[in-house]
Specification:
498 residues, alpha+beta, Neuraminidase, 2 domains, elongated
Length: 498
Amino acid sequence: MRKRMNQIVKAASAAAFAVALCASDLSVQTAFAGQNVPYETYTYDYYEDIKYTPAAYIPDGALTGAKIGCGDFLSPQDLNTDEDGNVYIADTGNSRVVVLDPSMKLVRVIDSFDNGGTEDHFSSPQGVYKSMSGNLYIADSGKNRVVELDGDDKLVQIIENPQSDVLAEGYVFTPLKVAVDYADRVYVIAQNQFEGIMAFDEAGQFIGFTGTIKVQISPWQIFWRRFSTREQRARQQLFIPTEFTGMEIDEDGFVYATNVDSEGQQSVRRLNPSGEDVIQQTAVPLSGDLDWRLSGAYSGASRIVDVVVRNQGIYSILDSSRGRIFTYDHEGNLLYIFGGMGSQEGTFTTPVAIDTIGEQVLVLDSNKNLIDLFKPTAYGSLINQAVGLRYDGDEVQAVECWKEVLKLDSNFELAYTGIGKSYLAAGDNKEAMRCFKIGNNKQYYSIAWKRYRNEILKDHLNAILTLVIVLAVLLVVWNKVLKKKVLQIRRERRMSHV
């Protein structure tokens, strides 16, 4: 039976800065396990068991097109925020892009642009992205193109009909999602394109695919396909590369991309410029829920449809199957889960996109035709702060935040790890071992144990050396004196018997 200590770990003293930082959010609503939210809040422990937690985020209102003042949204499919907090919504059914300021007030509606002296209109745009250079990119799906507009909504270029030997003859380019890095390279998730994310240079020229995910066929599947009839093979799953669903680019130019994974092993990747996945992860899959049914309502693995990169290595992914939002740190540790399906405020019917403004989370629901807003509780805010300090290398200053987290949730394993690292940095290896054991962090427990062992050896070196010398002397005495005497006694006894 697993035992888990529910006491708060005594931590090393932290700098006054950390105390002030953690105390600054006392005005944020405090999270309790019994807090009234329209969804379950939980996480998974080291053993992948569900542990219910206080709410990290709670509903903070909803925005409809009518409330904003632009008329009802109609099946919107994407939203994006810029560094100033402005919000861009791909209002697909109305063939327009709606722009809001950081206070969620309507700025303008973009439904057309001047294309060489002709008024050109969008047709069912499904993706929108504001680049670091300030230009707006629209995946104009209905017209098979990506439109780039400058800050004044003037046309910069149109990316359409890419040409390449790697594209099939007669290929129809239908962009669904678009993202742009600091060098103005354009990345596009296109319909029925399974070779990966399409990449274009700043001039709009197709330069290849990035991040292709190959599906691995098990020996068992190969065996059954060999003996299946033609009809059976036709009904079986096609072994084609996995489909991407959403993406965002971090400040370093790495592409975070989500994908469909029916096995629930990995549904988010961090792609470097070479297209290699360099995301950090623990032994726990980066794929949303770990515990799911094989049949019935809400069966199957989480279907992750979008990702948002947040501050200091934190990122969140959106599950359209069960309406969950899963948040991880830069090492792949699961921080918290919130959200759910339903008709209440703060729950979804068809969540399709996620983004943030500061700590506020925005989720676009294409069926409800609105944006749900979420704000952090004290519990969620403390976790964000502690993880941020840890990301910046301030393990000691994060201790006070971790201690406050443990007051609200004594089972939060990452908090014990954070406190253990502080002890480790302070040289208190024994206490660090205790924290890492509670936090089920075998890697750092091993480091602390080795340091503690060396510490014991160092502290008792003189006694150990003295003992070794005494044993060596006794061995010499035995060999030179006692051993000869024992042998002599044995010979005398044998002679007496003769």
